[in-house]
Amino acid sequence: MAEYLYGINPIHEAFQGAGRKPLELLVLSGERNDRLDDLVAQAKQQQLEVHFFDRRELDRLAGHTHHQGVLLKLTPYVYTDLATLLQGGAKSGKPAFFLLLDGITDPHNFGAILRSAEVAGCRGVIVAKDRSCPVTPVVEKTAAGALSYLSLCQVTNLSRAIDELKTAGVWCYGLAGDEDARDLFATDLKGPLALVVGSEGKGLRPNIRKHCDGLLSIPMSGHIDSLNASVATGIALFEVVRQNQQ
């Protein structure tokens, strides 16, 4: 079943990237501006059909009114398998860098994390099949086009995926607020590495913690002792980037 992506920037990135195949562009009738005209021109360059709809019909197809006057019909999202993800990292010539998500269920958090992962240069993001938010239009809109460039892998058993990464020589660190967790900023994060992030409420499951090579915590100086999952993930991702650029 085809799906709709909405928003000018995400659709622009979908045309530029190598993600899902665009099928047709749907534009609000009578709505004209340079950015919409550019999307129409890109669609025609790719020999896609462009259809114009009144606002009521476009709202119905999108399921809301926040589409910015344009929808892109896409083929269904296809997840990358873990073996392909590992091979792709090996061929790049750069140290492997992965992100694993254990139970992120909020679509806005998920999209924001995917955006940060792509910008940080992750080779791919690995999620559990039964305990994660699926790829939805809200996720793709929040990710701002990241899934046009970033591989997303869905696995049945996340702890087994961690073991496979470790077998491939990738160090796997879980983010946690435990007292015995290492300071993120004082830990050597150079080389092949994967970060494992838990759910918004309960964090990492005990079994996932056991499979990690170690736990990392972000030092807190204020009265509140926790961060939003997407914010914590972004901090950790770019600490890895910082260390590997030195």
Question: How would the blueprint of this fold be written?
Answer:
Elements: E1 3-6, H1 8-16, E2 22-28, H2 34-45, E3 49-53, H3 55-62, E4 70-74, H4 82-92, E5 97-102, H5 107-120, E6 124-128, H6 137-143, E7 151-155, H7 158-167, E8 171-175, E9 182-183, E10 193-198, H8 206-211, E11 214-217, H9 229-244
Parallel strand pairs: 2-3, 5-6, 5-10, 6-7, 8-10, 8-11, 9-11
Antiparallel strand pairs: 1-4, 2-4
Helix pairs in contact: 1-2, 5-6, 5-9
Structure at a glance:
This protein has helices at residues 8-16, 34-45, 55-62, 82-92, 107-120, 137-143, 158-167, 206-211, 229-244; strands at residues 3-6, 22-28, 49-53, 70-74, 97-102, 124-128, 151-155, 171-175, 182-183, 193-198, 214-217. It is α/β, with parallel strands linked by helices. The mean pLDDT is 89.
Overview of the structural elements:
With 246 residues, this protein is α/β, with parallel strands linked by helices. The protein has two domains: 72 residues, 60s Ribosomal Protein L30, Chain: A, CATH 3.30.1330; 163 residues, Alpha/beta knot (3-Layer(aba) Sandwich). It is 38% helix and 22% strand. The protein is built from nine helices and eleven strands. The strands form two sheets. A seven-stranded parallel beta sheet has the order 7-6-5-10-8-11-9, with helices on both faces. Helix 5 packs parallel to helix 6 and helix 5 runs parallel beside helix 9. The radius of gyration is 20 Å and the shape is elongated. The termini are far apart. The mean pLDDT is 89.
